Amino acid sequence: MAKAKYKYNPQTLTYDKVERTFKDRLLVAMKYLAVFALISAISVTAFNALFESPKEVALRREVQYLSNQVDVMNAELDTLNSFAVDLRQKDDDVYRNIFGADRYPSHLRKPGIGGVDRYKKLKGHDNSEDIIETKKRISKLQRQLVAQSKSLEEVFEMAQKKTEMLSSIPAIQPVRNEDLRRVASGYGRRIHPIYKIPKMHYGLDFSAGTGTEIYATGDGVVDDVQYDRTGFGKHVVIRHGYGYETLYAHMSEPKVRRGQKVKRGQVIGLVGNTGTSVGSHLHYEVRKDGERVNPGYYFFNDLSPEQYEKLLKKASEANQSLD
């Protein structure tokens, strides 16, 4: 209880006792309460500024953890991007080069996304910019990898076709070296054995004994089997695809039928002396896109470099053909 208050009275030169009303007491109480509230607010503010609550500590740690994870993700994205760039370079400069294909179109490697703002929900937060930038990098890498996947699918298809093509190209001798007496005549102008005049000889003549096995020089389908009394005599034509055909003439006996699928190295007939021929031999031709070409350029699978050079030299000598 506060002490009584007195007020000096100049007229009576005495101190008169001041009686306080309820209103006065209420005002005093409110003043004290206001001061107390102010001191409390200052104290709470100071405490919060100097000390964190357990909840705030947990939230601050979580925010820091998430921020660190964004940094880790960006570092991993840098690594993935470098792998993607390396894969793209190999795709364009190595894989497609092998198969003679054009580079994958650049506009397909970088497709646009367009449309509404994809990152609207991520805005308005302290780390929004970092998170949005990371999301953009992830989306970009995803689009690049999808495009790269499609490109590699094309390369895989080309590889499958290339394997099939390599198996189909005429690439071995139709008669084994151990069965071969000699290359009697090569591709070019030769003296015809009957007419005795220079005439274009469109194949190679392999001199071998009657009954010597003849091999398909590449995978394909038997397109024709003929039994002519003149010309090529008994002969077989194989269609290999990719513009290639091969002819095997003057057989004593074909071993295949029309429409039959054959593999490189498969026996398709026996050497003979049928048709217009003056000795037991195989006349062999290679046709590319309908044009007869030098078969000597297609023996690269079963000859050493020295044997190949020797064969080409022998085949190029001017002599008389056997058909």
Describe the structure.
With 323 residues, the protein is of the alpha+beta class. The chain has 3 domains: 5-50; 54-168; 177-315, Glucose Permease (Domain IIA) (Distorted Sandwich). Helix content is 40%, strand content 23%. The protein has helices spanning 22-50, 54-98, 106-109, 128-168, 305-315; strands at residues 5-9, 14-18, 182-185, 188-191, 198-201, 204-207, 213-215, 220-227, 234-241, 244-254, 261-262, 267-271, 281-288, 291-293. The strands form 3 sheets. Strands 3, 6, 7, 8, 9, 10, 11, 12, 13 and 14 form a 10-stranded antiparallel beta sheet that branches. Strands 1-2 form a two-stranded antiparallel sheet. The radius of gyration is 48 Å and the shape is rod-shaped.
Low-confidence stretches: none
Kindly report how far apart the N and C termini lie.
144 Å
Structural class: alpha+beta
The biggest beta sheet reads:
10 strands, antiparallel
Roughly what percent helix? 40-55%
- CATH H-level name of the largest domain... which superfamily? Glucose Permease (Domain IIA)
The beta-strand count equals 14
Characterize the overall form: rod-shaped
Percent of sequence in beta strands = 15-25%
Rg, rounded, reads 48 Å
Number of domains: 3
What's the CATH class of the largest domain, please? Answer: Mainly Beta
